[in-house]
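Two proteins, back to back. First:
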Amino acid sequence: MHIALGAICVLYFVDRLQQLGLPTAIYICLFAAVWTIYLVDHKLDARKEGLATPRRHFHRASRRLIDGLILFNLIIGLLAMAFIPRPVVLGGLFLAGLSLVYLRFAGQLGSWRVKELLTALCYGAGVMLAPLYYGPFWPTLILTSQLAVLALANLLLFSMFEKDADEAEGFSSWVTEMGSRRSEHLLRILLALTIVSAIAFMVTLYWRFQLFMLVASLILFFISFKRDYFGQRERYRVFGDLVFILPLALLP
């Protein structure tokens, strides 16, 4: 649920910045879609034998609850669609469908691992879909790209902390494929890119959003340098997810 709440916070932040006045139905659909994809992802992961992490054990033991939550999200999402413009609905259905199809067939794709990239792109585009439709397209497209890069850095950081557990349980990620050293270099590049872009657009393009990008990137940088501390009790996940709640502190 925290992933979906973070998406809602970012959308509300952009809504306020651009003064769009988005309908409540869009927030409901976004929340339902993000949470459903998250639940389906963990439901599929939990089918494997020999799970070692408590989080995956919980999802395996809570299959009926997860099924019920998925059904609930689908119902409220479908009801909310009736109050959303058709182009936004079609775009959202495409992104959600793309994510779910990949998750379903990911195990059959061998070493062709694009989960992190696809997740980041769908997250950025999904959160910003309504602002792209209602607001100024090209400036919003830049914000969408920045958000997607930040999301990719966040996912890569999490995978670095979970590398040993993923290998033990037979899961693949960019980190297990590339190795820790190359993954660290890629993470630094992604975070440097978000920092440079935030500074470059600070004056000309929604300075509050750029400040959010800058602070969020620095937080992720700090987490990556303090792995011993943040690796305990999955602190990296708590603080890493909190960066998407940060926009609430920067509302105009």
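And the second protein:
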Amino acid sequence: MIRRHSFYLQLPIALFCAGVSLLAQEQGVALSLAEAERYALSRNTALHIQENQTRIAELNRSIADAAAWPKLGAVLQYSWMQPPPGAKRELLPGVELDLTSGHEVASYGVQLRQTLYAGGRIEAAQEIARLGEELSHRLQADAAGATRLQVRTLFLQTLLLEGIESLAEQNAARAEQRRLDAEKRLAAGVIPRLELLRLSAEAADASVARNERSDRTRAARAALRLALDWPEESGPALSGDLVSYADRPADLQYLRDQSGHSERLRAAQLQVQMAEANVTATRGQMLPTISAAAGADLHRPHLGQSRYDTGYSVSMQLTMPLFEHGRIQNEISRAEVEAENARLQLQNAERELDNLRTRTVDAIASLQASLPARRQNVERAQAVRDATDVARRSGAASERDLSDAELALLATRTDQLRAISEWLIAMAQWEQLTALQSGIFESSAPPSPASAQESSQP
């Protein structure tokens, strides 16, 4: 069982996360995406709750399996009876001896009982418990996938906002430097005051934009810190470059061909099987129950005498419900309706998963196709900005021309970062939907379809 060695599996993770936290706090080491995922998986409360639910399901299966085994128990009985039990025997002709031994009857011993037939209820209960255990494992895996997706989304969004904040900071610094240069040129009589006012307004707008980006970045860091349950209020420093991910294109045909084994869909299938097994167990209540018992005890009175002596017993028992005011039939009807609902929920989950997977792959394809064009736009905007700066120095371009070129470069870089972030988040959603690995987050180069499929096997 997985849980049997859970301590030995979780101890290295706990030590790793403690080391990551201390290292990040004391030395300021940046946290990578993979480290953030492992840290979150070790500290997520909902995931720990689901682990406990899995343990409960394992215990329920053990309990259900125990119902099929013989049961050995101790029996202690005491009764007071009126009239008292006894016997009269005629040992001599015409003389009756009264062997009544009093009002008390007592016995103690052991009894072995075995249910031979229960209308399939025991087998159905064992099947339900087995399916419930597998369902808990699936839900635990789905909870881990949801936690991983949440951390990846927040991590990538924070990287995006940090990148945009850095661009806004650079733009604000350039705008402020242009304003300072304009003040000197105004003092030298090179430019009119109107030009200084215009550059001052641009610098103020750039400062406001920088502050807005900084506020959004702080909010994103706070959300990531809460998701990680990070001890430091400021949150961890992050490592990673969004632009570098653009060099790892995904195999779109592989993404379209792979349906994967969604944990959520498999959980819905198990719920259908459990509901059908519950119907079988409920119908079994209408069938007889046969059990056998064997026992040995010391009882008093014995043969009419007030003394203890040994006795043995073997018995068979058959019980069958005859009339219970429609209770069993109503329970059967309820179980059948619950099974029908489970089947409808499975069909709905299959449709939703298929549609969501298709939309996700389409979004990945659209965003991935736009990445080369966005990179070219950044390169062109950078070339235009550099050429405009040279022209300004020679007097062939104005400060307004340079400002426009820098704003265009800022816009193209922001669009590129946003597109890469959305593409990576869509890839993370695909991995969560299919429980497969795309290779985008695991290594510097995507694996082949065969290797990616092998690495996804549990």
